[in-house]
Amino acid sequence: MPEFGLLSVLIWLPILGGTVMLIIGERSGGSQWFALALSVFTFVLSVPLYAGFDSGTADMQFVERIPWIPAFRVEYFLGIDGLSMPLILLTTFLTPIVVLAGWEVVKLRPVQYFAAFLILEGLMIGVFSALDGLLFYVFWEAMLVPMFLIIGVWGGERRVYATIKFFLYTFLGSVFMLLALIYLYLQTGSYNILAFHAVPLSMAEQIPIFLAFLFAFAVKVPMWPVHTWLPDAHVEAPTGGSVILAAILLKMGGYGFVRFSLPITPDASQTLALLMIALSLMAVVYIGFVALAQQDMKKLIAYSSIAHMGFVTLGFFIAWAILSRTGDTAGIGMGITGGMVQMVSHGFISGALFLCVGVLYDRLHTREIGAYGGVVNTMPIFATFFVLFALANAGLPGTSGFVGEFLVILASFRANFWYALLAGTTLVLGAAYTLWMIKRVVFGAVANDGVAALRDLSVREFMILALMAGGVLIIGLWPAPLVDVMSASVDKLVVQVTQSKL
Amino acid sequence: MESTYLAIVLSPLAAALIAGLFGRRIGRAGAHSVTILGVAVSCALSAAVLWRQVVDGAPADNVSVYTWLVTDGVRMEIGFLVDRLSALMMVVVTFVSLMVHVYSIGYMHDDAGYQRFFSYISLFTFSMLMLVMSNNLLQLFFGWEAVGVVSYLLIGFWYTRPSAIFANLKAFLVNRIGDFGFLLGIAALLYLTGSLDYREVFAAAPGLQDATIDVGSWQWPALSMACILLFIGAMGKSAQVPLHVWLPDSMEGPTPISALIHAATMVTAGVFMVARMSPVFEYAEAALSFVLVIGAITALFTGLIALVQFDIKRVVAYSTLSQLGYMMVAQGASAYAAGMFHLTTHAFFKALLFLAAGSVIIALHHEQDMRRMGGLRKYMPVTYWTSLVGCLALIGFPGFAGFFSKDALIEAEDLSRIAGAGFAEFCIVAGVFITALYTFRMFFLVFHGPERMDAEARSHLHESPWVVTLPLVLLAIPSVIVGWFATGPLVFGDFFGDSLYVRPEHDVLARLGEEWHGPMSFLVHGFQSPVLYLALGGAAVAWFLYLRQPHLPDQLRDRFGAVYRLLENKYYADWLAERVIPAAGRAMGGAFWRVGDVTLIDGGLVNGSARVVGWGAALIRRLQTGYLYHYAFAMVIGLALLAGWLLIRPGGS
Fold first, then answer.
1. Among B107-116, B125-134, B251-260, which range has the highest average pLDDT?
2. What number is the ipTM of this complex?
3. Is the dihedral of CA A141, A259, A398, A310 positive or negative?
4. How many CA atoms does the CB half-sphere of A221 hold within 13 Å?
5. Which of A123, A249, B147, B613 is the most exposed place for a label (fewest CB within 10 A)?
6. Interface of A with B in 375-434 (CB under 8 A)
7. CB contact (8 A) between residue B146 and residue A425
């Protein structure tokens, strides 16, 4: 007798709701109310994942497991641990916000717009909770479709170029992942990810598997040099699309590393760690400079996202450098924890920044930095939020942006002084590109008639940004609740990466 | 005591939030009342804490408030270490802050951002208290960056002025360069000691004297490396050369801010940090020498710049840079108590000088150029006399607070045997002459001589209201008397107790203390040293140049044009910081983007591969023409080739 658990509800309720909306179509008004109610309800339902979570164990929780395609031993296998649970909550928290962000703004096919986000939500939760490789792959690929439509239908002028670039990049990446999954199926006789973790693999097997996964995940994160789809996708995507893209989609890449690459191919990860560290630092330093040169706010934030995600991969892959330098595992967990916290924090901060740009875009219909100036004069409340999120993006202590970067820098000092030094440049570069944008957009005298005519936040916009600000500040001032739920799973991962499979 | 400490920290924060979030509802009077109340509570409780520490002899208090996070066995906490060092800083910070709050009622009277201003300065007080009361490196860094942010907001307070929002970005970024070093220093200490908690770090320091950190293939002495990295943070916050470039520009903020943040409290955070970390710095001789030399360079060379400034606030700003250098020199010579004492006296007399400058500025309707001042003595008696007190204290005139702190510092330097001490002593002794020269140049240009303002401004001249002059008087009092009773216990006594640590072989103050026979004999001794005559000489030269022979400065400028230009351009450090480095960064970013992302990756890889696919497709499309005879022809050719190959292959039939 299959049980229908909480995770299934969280996955299928939004998908079902979205489908119903599509079927009913434009006939009835109030689609945004339905979407909001459903997404808020989903969020409320997801709270027990946190409240009922046992942070003392690294075992999978809220497990659901029934056969799906028995011939190939494919299962409908769901479960979460400390690595996936925060990302699911991030998803359920952000979806209502995205619905609110599109409230009065989306005039074209609003029903389909909101339905796409609901379906996307369910699929993303599916990605984070799937413990069967093929199920994971199905969610992973299915999720591309609503995102593709969101950019392609509701996007800006060059949306077709951006969509195709986005699709090709991510699709190419995941084809290799499918090959790796099939190979692992042949080795273990199932698609059970936990069995993948346990299966011994030679170095000759691990390296190709690692590279196959790397291709899929690196595109999603995105890592240098496969990052160029992201700025284009962001620029063309509607505000809500950008928020979900930055806040959650990118996290799938980071999640993939901790769920697949590190535990399945620890020896290959070790062998190629230097490459991964180099790519991560490239993201932090090189992309930091690139962000400095941007004239388009969304592009700037997109590049800033890439730089910040560099900390995620850096935190994950310094493990062996720490081990070989100090002969001790201390610091490995700190790096991984830092990377995980950075993912959650980046979800809030980049999401909030895109929402801020959206607020401006809705009014003046331009994202050019040069089209603004002196916004604080006409929108003081908005300016307060924007400056807060900008400072968080620059890694100010007391905001969530600090926590992950701090931990990763501390941990990378244990690995190598130069890693810490290069990673630390974000303190200067991050502040430079973010606050220089703030200087040009927010501060100064009123630059033109457009800015002079701006009106400050509506109640709806205020609520969205206040919720985001709450998240940024709570995690920044008291990250312990977030770190505690991860710690058992992180400890287990540390054991997995430091035990050779050879 | 935990609730007391929490009240000290949280009352300014609560006041800041009320004034900031509900400013419109509570109005102007509400905003300044609530913030002044918050800071007054904080100040009174801080005084009680200091009393309890010093007079009642209570032991140092180390309390943990909450656990920020635990990861990998490292517990990161928010907590307070209240001992005599932090208690002194708490009193200095809250007292100066209270004075500045009161003063701002008058100074900011006509400003549209009145509530915002009071919210910011209370928020600053909270951040600064978090910094000085911390018991761990994490919270120190939190306070460190938080004061930086409030400073950023306050320098850019008048955000419609291009110069203000330029200055605040510059200040933040230069400070971030320092913080970058600071964070690496924290990481180094965590790496070495496995903890961020002061007491655990301090306990581990003696055992790490010979430890090294491998940097590439080099082995660097671990503690010196960590301390130099930490000190790079102090160089940003306390504006030491070459990270000093932000402080003069910070004068774009309202004058009360210059007094509070950019003279008395925030900029001394670096000095405080070195004192706080003295148990670690003591085992890092190379780092001490580094501190000493940087401090000495700052003390002398920024003082020289003050000689050619005409903006009254900038003169005081460069003077602040120079005095911060003096404090750092003391820290480098292990004379932490002397450095902290100079920090304390400087907080009083420099806040006084800034507020007095502000009083002059409002009297002249926001005129800051000293070339349009002069003869203000008779219009503004209270400002005049309190300024005189501030100037005498600054140049170290016998009996005034600055005399005791500066003399103790110079004498200590004389005894120090650490590398660089000779150079440092030369710089700070020469600096005494320079200090007196620029100080009295300013004093004479502002208060004496001909009245150079226009008639319109002259007709409105009058003394400032009591909310402005009262803080001047209240700050003038400690600027006179504090040396008399505090020098003995603070510098030579055991005021600081265990809160500072000095290794016996570094303890210059103990040796100096053997000759200490009370303030009177110190005073008499002062008359026998050349330092005093350098100060008096500087003041006399200023009198001669600016009152007696006012045409001489111009002649000197023409005569020494190269030197003058060097000073006027601040050794071209600003040019480097404002023109060269940002332009290089932007150019690099642009080049990376256009060459790397757009041309190579997108143009080459992405669109390139698309093009390859496109060509391939075009090629294949050619084959599928749809004409039957093409296909038939291809089949015939193929069959012929196959048959031919079967016939002629080796070993075929």
1. B125-134
2. 0.92
3. negative
4. 34
5. B613
6. 376-377, 391, 394, 396-398, 403, 406-407, 409-411, 413-414, 417-418, 420-421, 424-425, 427-428, 431-432
7. no
